[in-house]
Amino acid sequence: MHASTFLVAIFITLQAFSQENTMVLVPDGTYKPFIKGDSKQISVASFFIDEKQVSNADFRKFVKENPQWSKENARKLFVDSDYLSQWESDSTVSKKSASGAPVVNVSWFAAKAYCEWTDRRLPTLDEWEYVAASLPYNSTDTNSIKKLIADWYSRNDTKSNYKNAMGVWNMHGKVWEWVYDFDRIQSNSDSRNKEEVPAGFFCGSASLNASDASDYTSFVRYAFRSSLKGNYTVRNLGFRCAKSK
Amino acid sequence: MKTTFNYTIRFILVFSFVTAFSACQKKEKAGEDLNTEIIGETNAILTHAPEVPPHITAKHNTKVIVNLEVIEKTMRLADGVNYTFWTFGGKVPGSFIRIRQGDLVEFHLHNHPDNMLPHNIDLHAVTGPGGGAEASLIAPGKSAQFSFRALNQGLYVYHCATAPVGMHIANGMYGLILVEPLEGLPPVDHEFYLMQGEFYTSKQQDANGHRDFDMQKALDENPDFVVINGAVGASAGENAMRVKVGETVRLFVGNGGPNLVSSFHAIGEIFDQVAIEGGSLINENVQTTLIPAGGSSIVEFKCDVPGTLHLVDHSIFRAFNKGALAQIKVEGAENHQVYTGKQREDVYLPEGSAVQHITTKETADVAVVLPEKTLEERLSEGQTLFNQNCMACHMENGKGIAGTFPPLENSDFLQARNDKGIGIVLHGLQGEITVNGTKYNNIMPAVKLSDDQVASVLTYIHNKFNNDKVLVKASDVADWRSKND
């Protein structure tokens, strides 16, 4: 190994380890996609994913070392006007958002930049859904995930704190999460395809394209993604990072 | 019943006669002429049910700016039941929008930043893809704008069309938009806004009585609540609409569904005219009109005699057991030429809004102990419960119907009972009894209320109808149950 490459490798490793969030190795596997496609099961190759969502404290370090992503400096092309609005300033967090809480009001561009700063990336939609389908640890009740989501949207009960069988925390019930290809579904409903059955998430076309039309909690999640644009920031939308093996 | 809208009907009959000869040609509609001039602009006045925005007086078409905010919030669905509604404008049904045929509408939909979910709007009054749905899908904290020309007149439903559509509608995301003819509808004394919708709820989730959406019940089309204006009793009892004898009333009635078709009826009134399905076809002298899910109706009548009109879904278990009941109180002098008063045939069967049973005992499915309430709280809740469960027979004033339904007012029978009446509510009563010297032999079904609700309704009866001023506690009911059930 060339000396400079070696140094860069050490630097990246140190930076990755400087983050509080530990990663979980997700095994090879398959999951049944919510959107009807060519295959009934989608294969996902083994990868690493953050055990928890990126926190306000994590993101503050990123902003400190990358001032171009501060509230003041971040370019309007990449973030909308609510970017990090839960922070009173770049160094103080308002009472409502504890430093350990998941960071929200971050755009896709900002989330992607954060992951890349730690030599990682956002999980793909398939990776995220595969991990999210893992039932709570020690649970065999397939309805438990639906219940977690229902509790959250219906009663805003964010106290739930659960680890799934893969060892990943709170895939449901804290905040929505960005994925790398969040607009994959949405892009199919481009107005140029109007003559065909639109693949978007409006009215009847949504149920025509779902593998289980009664799976309303998945509908909610897919509909949420399809309402987003890359520079959008939302009060209950955060992210976690992934890394290929 | 004599209609007060002869002119309109004559006009419509003549109009129909003329158009009958040109059935193949598409009817010419004023609003389809896109060259009509749009003069000025105005912000639409939006109202919560049962209020309707005022008549528009301008003689010309206008650009109308509508700002509608989507708010997810927890509110009362029935006494002791809270639900997280998704609303257009903060209440269910959504804000009433009034525009005129030919108007240009600039529509702004805002999704409140604290909301959890994306939303959009499909207005049936819009000619265009998705009724605006595609153009208006927005994440929490965003606003969307689109414009449309109101080509067709009529009373139209709007609703959210974000997946899962059924769930968004089931959580309360519907309202009405009225597209009037440019000259306006004929004047009436009162206009009101009513909208029916049904709710599919889970078991009680916490001590506040919160219930969640239940997808399986929605798929089975088996709602727990069918309500008018967003909650049991929202436009009844103290919240009833009020008019005077001799006045004319126009109701804009919508049905948000998501599943059920409404058999809309006014107990004690006949609709002089009905704009069927909210369109241009007028029917006269109608007792009950069907309102499809995602449809509407405009009904008009004159109130000739005093009393309370019960507006119901005449699929009647929904009205008396699931909440689909609103009221108009008509005040003024009696007119015995129209109606003589007490006649037994005019009384409805004894039923209440809670689940009833005659032969089997059931225990409440949720045993959450609520904190005891004050006299004021009991009286307030008790009144609503009384109106829903007892009033149909015992009458609003508690006097009952002599010989048929015993009085609760100053009742020697009630005051002599050691159980304060708890046993009667929980188990019903059958056979001959004597109340204040008059014999009664009838059946009262048991009323399936929670201990807390039984305590409130009995406290109301004891205190409001000149009986002993007793505060009945939920624990009294629980005690009685433990000894007798």
Calculate the terminal CA-CA distance of chain B, rounded to whole Å.
52 Å
Largest interface: A-B, 34 and 33 residues
CATH topology name of chain A, in short, is: paralog of FGE (formylglycine-generating enzyme)
Assembly type of the chains comes to: heterodimer
In what range is the share of β-strand residues of chain A? 5-15%
- Backbone structural class of chain B: alpha+beta
CATH topology-level fold name of the largest domain in chain B: Immunoglobulin-like
CATH architecture grouping of chain A: Alpha-Beta Complex
Strand order of the largest sheet of chain A: 1-4-7
**H/E element order of chain A:** HEEEEHHHHEHHEE
Q: Can you count the beta strands of chain A?
A: 7
Shape of chain B: globular
Question: What would you say this structure looks like, in words?
Answer:
The complex is a heterodimer of chains A (245) and B (485). Chain A is an alpha+beta fold and 245 residues long. Chain A has helices spanning 3-18, 56-65, 108-117, 125-132, 144-155, 203-209, 216-226, and strands at residues 23-26, 29-31, 42-44, 47-50, 176-177, 237-238, 242-244. Chain A has a single domain (22-244), classed as paralog of FGE (formylglycine-generating enzyme), CATH 3.90.1580. Chain A has seven helices and seven strands; from the N terminus they run H-E-E-E-E-H-H-H-H-E-H-H-E-E. Chain A is globular. Helices cover 19% and strands 34% of the residues of chain B. Chain B has helices spanning 6-20, 133-136, 165-170, 215-220, 317-321, 375-389, 391-394, 412-415, 422-427, 451-464, 474-484, and strands spanning 38-43, 61-78, 81-88, 97-100, 104-111, 122-123, 143-149, 154-159, 174-180, 190-199, 201-204, 210-213, 225-228, 241-244, 248-257, 262-267, 271-275, 282-286, 288-291, 295-302, 307-313, 325-331, 355-357, 429-435, 438-444, 446-448. In chain B, the strands form six sheets. In chain B, strands 1, 2, 3, 5, 7, 11 and 12 form a seven-stranded mixed β-sheet that branches. Chain B has a six-stranded mixed β-sheet with strand order 13-10-15-20-17-18. In chain B, strands 14-22-21-16-19 form a five-stranded mixed β-sheet. Chain B is globular, with a radius of gyration of 24 Å. Mean pLDDT of chain B is 87; it is low at 1-28 and 359-366.
